Amino acid sequence: MGTVFSFDVRGGEPGPVRAALDEAVAGLHRVNEVFSTYREDSQVSRLVRGELSVEECDPEVAEVLALGAEAERVSDGWFSMRYEGRLDPTGIVKGWAAERAARLMAGVGGVSGVSVNGGGDVQLLGVPGPERPWRVGVSDPLRPGGLAAVVSAAGADELAVATSGTAERGAHIVDPRTGRSAVTDLVAVTVVAPELTWADCWATAAFAMGSREALRWLEALPDVEALLITAGDEVRCTGGLARRLG
Question: Does residue 27 surpass a pLDDT of 80?
Answer without folding.
Answer: yes
